[in-house]
Specification:
- The protein has one domain: 3-Layer(aba) Sandwich (Aminopeptidase), CATH 3.40.630.30.
- Helices cover 33% and strands 34% of the residues.
- The protein is globular.
- It starts with 7 loop residues before the first strand and ends with a helix.
Length: 201
């Protein structure tokens, strides 16, 4: 798990409050687990447990981030920081016919039910979309078919639905895969050609 803190400011600020994101560190985990528990309870879904989190965060290329709401103090400082959400993403590369394609996979978003989940989701999507553009990567995330708010957000951000992941034994809903990349259509065409060539070998 990464321990370096990396504060980034986004355009979701008010005169007295700001949103920051930074790398998740060990002392954040109790708050992260509590957000996950509360969010799962509200959505009536099975929450991730400690083993789920650690299993993903210890995977090569995985990054855990927390989102903090910073309430400004007086002129002498005394700002207050509160974790209101988190996200986990991974990076990897896939070989294609003429090189490699880099992927940024958003695996998990968690939002405190006491806060505005759509706002937190938009913050995360904007942050990682900018990162994927800067690194010339394709951004991927799988969205529950019932989560219309997130689907609409992704459509508004120029993501494309590229596939369906059918429900498995411990799930009662399908997932829609969304992807975003600069020059998206050309990249998808190359990937499909590569897979077709592999099937013919």
């Amino acid at each position: 798990m990464k321990t370096q803190e990396n504060v980034m400011v986004e355009n979701f600020n008010t005169p007295n409050k700001e949103l920051h994101s930074r790398f998740m560190i060990r002392r954040d985990m109790p708050e992260v687990y509590e957000i996950e528990r509360k969010a799962a309870e509200k959505s009536m879904k099975e929450p991730w447990d400690e083993n789920d989190f650690l299993g993903v965060l210890r995977t090569k290329g995985s990054n855990g981030m927390v989102i903090e709401e910073v309430t400004k103090g007086n002129e002498e400082g005394n700002d207050k920081y509160k974790i209101i959400g988190f996200y986990i993403y991974g990076t990897c590369e896939e070989k294609v016919l003429d090189g490699n394609i880099k992927f940024l996979n958003l695996m998990k978003i968690g939002a405190d039910p006491d806060y505005d989940r759509p706002k937190i989701e938009e913050y995360v999507v904007n942050r990682l979309k900018d990162k994927s553009m800067h690194e010339n990567a394709t951004m991927i995330l799988d969205v529950d078919e019932r989560d219309l708010n997130l689907q609409n957000l992704l459509n508004s951000k120029d993501f494309a639905a590229t596939g369906i992941i059918r429900a498995v034994a411990n799930s009662d809903s399908d997932l829609f895969r969304f992807e975003y990349a600069q020059g998206f259509s050309e990249i998808i065409a190359v990937r499909r050609a590569n897979k077709q060539e592999q099937r013919q070998l």
